[in-house]
Structure formats: structure tokens, C-alpha cells
């Protein structure tokens, strides 16, 4: 079992650098169109990392991440539209809607520093206030899931109902530049891809540092025994609120990057169905594994791209069936299957080397501990 543990540590040590290298060489082998698709998938992967921490480690079934994705996306979109506004100083859709004066809500977003800060602060502030309100009342489980889902639905209604301010159902579109980068130029598109890939790596490393540290162990304790943690003097509501806020900030960053990558941010991308789609990717990859969540998000969205071309109406049913199958037959997702295969191979190798000695029992305990805490890598 020592050899199995060493192999597992070696694999973990080289997996992240290998993934970084693959992300680095992608622009060299992919066409601009395919590179744009990959950048879009990476945006969803950033959201998935936050969901994996909140759901896998914290036990919070977050069904409203589309809200925070949208807050970050609209904050960035508003700045880009103002940066491209003509002599009237109004975005094109406002001119078409007959708006004669820039709404006060929009004015601060002309400042790039304010816009970048809003990408993080807006989702974080909304999540923090909502989290304190909800978790102080000890709302958990299905009740929290339904509440977060209702928040996503209400957010979409708000955006659609303010045509002159938010662009209505069309949202914000037709972005030509991103902080000096020409989005129609392949060089500009590659630069946006680099920024997105770098953001994913940073978010992943921060999340891994959190879940592997003392706070991560406290979060698991809150998930498994909230009342016992409260008895020990900790504040479970604050712990859950901080994690919920962190996942919202990750979603906001992803939404902001989605705008220059895809060129649109609209209510259709933020409602209940898109939020559930993000959750499916995490479930497929493995909600207890950050790496699994990233792989699952990319894989599910790639499958959506492939199947939607020929089976646009059937994709939703296929996605729902996939979600149910994973929860029933592989609740730990692909990462869980890989971990079980590792343990089986390590046990088989240990049996060949040392027989059925005491090391096998130690390995079993190690595996049990890893399964109880979740796979952090």
C-alpha cells in the first residue's frame, strides 16, 4: 500500500503541471473557433470549482449559480458597452429603445477599475448577505436548494422586465474589444483565452489550498455534523456563508470572462436550466474532487456542443438522464471511479508484494478516510 500511496502522490504532483501544459499548447493546435469553444468551457469549469467546494465539501446544493455568473457577466458587459458607446454615450440597444439619458445604474461602470471590482464585489456581497440570512435560520438541504433556484428564476424575470436598462431578453451583445484587445482578431482571441485559462488555474489553486487546510476540514465537519460543530464553539452559519460567497465570486469571475469569450450575456444563460447544467457537470466529474469538477464541466459542455447540433431538443432529456444515472450508480462521479480503481490496483499490487499483511489494513483505513473527506485534488 505504500507503493500505491506514493504512486497516488506522484500522479497528483504531475497532474496539474500536465494540465497547464495542455492549456498552454491548445492555441497552437486548435483553430480559432475551437479555441473559442475551449475558452467557453473553461469559464464553466471556473464555476464548477466553486460548486465543488460548496456542494462536495460543504454539502450545499447550489442551484442558483447562474445569478452570480450573471452579475459578473453584466458588470463586465456594461463596461464594455460603455467603452464602445458613440458620441451619445449610450449603448446601442438603449438608442434603439428610445432611451435618451444614461441610467444612473450604468454610470459607474464606465470606470474600468469600478467594473473589475464589481465583478467580484457584486456576486460576493449578494451571496454573503443571502448566506447570513439563510444559514442563520438554519435553512439547509432541499430547502436551500429550492431557495437558490427561486433566486435564479427571479433574477431572470428582473433582467427581462427592464428592456431599456438590461437589454431585455436579448441581453448585452456585439462586443468588439476587451481592454484594448480586438475580439475580432485571432491574436486578441488568443489573449482572452490565456486570461481565461490563467483565471481557472488561479481559482483551482486557491480552492485546493482552502480545502486542504484547516478551514477545509472544518467545512467537512460542518457538512457531516453541524450541531456538533456548533457545540464545539464554531459558527457553522459563518463557515457556510464564507464558502457560499467564495463560490459566488468564482461564478462572477467566470461570467465576466464569458462576455469577451462568447460575445454575449443574456437572461437565457443565467436561469434555472443553465444553473442545473452547471451542477450536472460537477456531478458527472465528481463533486468531491476539484479536478473531477473541472473535467466534468468541460466534458458535459463539449457533449452539449456535439449533441445539440443534431439533437437540440433531446439534449435536455439526455442531460437529465445522465444526472440521474450518475447519482444512482456513481454518486462520486468519474473522480470517484478513478479513485476506486487506484485503490483496487494498489491493493492488488500490495497483495503481490507483501501478501495479506498489516499494510493492507492500513491502506483500507487510508482509503476510508479519503472517501469520508472527499478527493481534494
UniProtKB/TrEMBL annotation:
Any GO molecular function: branched-chain amino acid transmembrane transporter activity
This protein's UniProt keywords: Cell membrane, Membrane, Transmembrane, Transmembrane helix
Highest taxon of source: Bacteria
Keyword Ion transport: no
InterPro entries in UniProt: ABC_transp_permease (IPR001851), ABC_transptr_urea_perm_UrtC (IPR017778), LivM-like (IPR043428), RhesusRHD (IPR002229)
Disordered: region residues: 355-377
GO CC, alphabetical: plasma membrane
Signal peptide feature range: none
Membrane topology value: Multi-pass membrane protein
Cellular compartments annotated: Cell membrane
Biased composition, class Gly residues, residue ranges: 355-366
CDD domains, per database record: TM_PBP1_LivM_like (cd06581)
Transmembrane segments: 12-31, 37-55, 113-135, 142-161, 191-211, 242-266, 278-303, 315-335
UniProt cross-references to PANTHER family, sorted A to Z: HIGH-AFFINITY BRANCHED-CHAIN AMINO ACID TRANSPORT SYSTEM PERMEASE (PTHR30482), SLR1201 PROTEIN (PTHR30482:SF4)
NCBIfam families: urea_trans_UrtC (TIGR03408)
Name the record gives this protein: Urea ABC transporter permease subunit UrtC
Species, as recorded: Actinosynnema pretiosum
Amino acid at each position: 500500500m505504500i507503493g500505491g500511496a506514493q504512486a497516488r502522490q506522484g500522479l497528483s504532483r504531475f497532474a496539474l503541471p500536465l494540465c497547464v501544459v495542455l492549456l498552454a499548447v491548445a492555441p497552437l493546435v486548435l483553430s480559432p473557433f475551437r479555441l473559442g469553444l475551449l475558452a467557453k468551457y473553461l469559464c464553466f469549469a471556473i464555476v464548477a470549482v466553486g460548486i465543488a467546494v460548496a456542494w462536495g465539501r460543504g454539502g450545499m446544493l447550489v442551484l442558483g449559480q447562474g445569478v452570480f455568473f450573471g452579475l459578473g457577466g453584466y458588470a463586465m458587459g456594461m463596461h464594455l458597452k460603455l467603452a464602445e458607446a458613440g458620441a451619445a454615450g449610450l449603448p446601442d440597444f438603449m438608442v434603439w429603445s428610445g432611451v435618451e439619458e444614461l441610467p444612473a445604474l450604468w454610470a459607474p461602470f464606465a470606470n474600468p477599475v469600478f467594473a473589475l471590482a464589481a465583478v467580484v464585489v457584486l456576486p460576493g456581497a449578494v451571496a454573503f448577505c443571502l448566506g447570513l440570512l439563510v444559514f442563520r435560520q438554519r435553512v439547509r438541504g432541499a430547502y436551500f436548494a429550492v431557495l437558490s433556484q427561486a433566486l435564479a428564476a427571479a433574477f431572470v424575470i428582473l433582467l427581462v422586465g427592464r428592456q431599456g436598462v438590461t437589454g431585455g431578453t436579448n441581453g448585452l451583445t456585439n462586443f468588439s474589444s476587451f481592454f484594448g484587445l480586438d475580439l475580432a482578431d485571432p491574436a486578441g482571441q488568443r489573449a482572452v483565452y490565456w486570461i481565461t485559462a490563467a483565471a481557472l488555474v488561479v481559482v483551482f489553486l486557491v480552492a485546493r489550498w482552502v480545502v486542504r487546510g484547516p478551514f477545509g476540514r472544518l467545512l467537512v465537519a460542518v457538512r457531516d455534523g453541524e450541531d456538533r460543530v456548533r457545540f464545539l464553539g464554531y459558527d457553522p452559519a459563518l463557515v457556510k456563508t464564507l464558502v457560499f460567497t467564495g463560490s459566488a465570486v468564482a461564478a462572477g469571475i467566470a461570467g465576466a470572462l464569458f462576455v469577451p469569450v462568447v460575445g454575449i450575456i443574456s437572461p437565457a444563460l443565467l436561469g434555472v436550466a443553465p444553473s442545473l447544467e452547471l451542477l450536472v457537470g460537477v456531478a458527472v466529474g465528481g463533486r468531491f474532487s476539484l479536478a473531477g469538477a473541472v473535467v466534468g464541466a468541460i466534458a458535459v459542455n463539449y457533449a452539449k456542443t456535439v449533441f445539440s447540433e443534431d439533437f437540440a431538443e433531446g439534449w435536455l432529456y439526455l442531460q437529465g438522464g445522465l444526472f440521474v444515472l450518475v447519482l444512482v450508480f456513481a454518486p462520486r462521479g468519474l473522480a470517484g471511479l478513478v479513485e476506486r480503481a487506484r485503490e483496487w490496483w494498489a491493493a492488488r499490487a500490495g497483495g503481490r508484494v507483501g501478501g495479506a499483511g498489516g499494510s493492507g489494513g492500513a491502506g483500507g483505513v487510508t482509503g476510508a478516510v479519503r472517501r469520508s473527506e472527499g478527493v481534494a485534488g
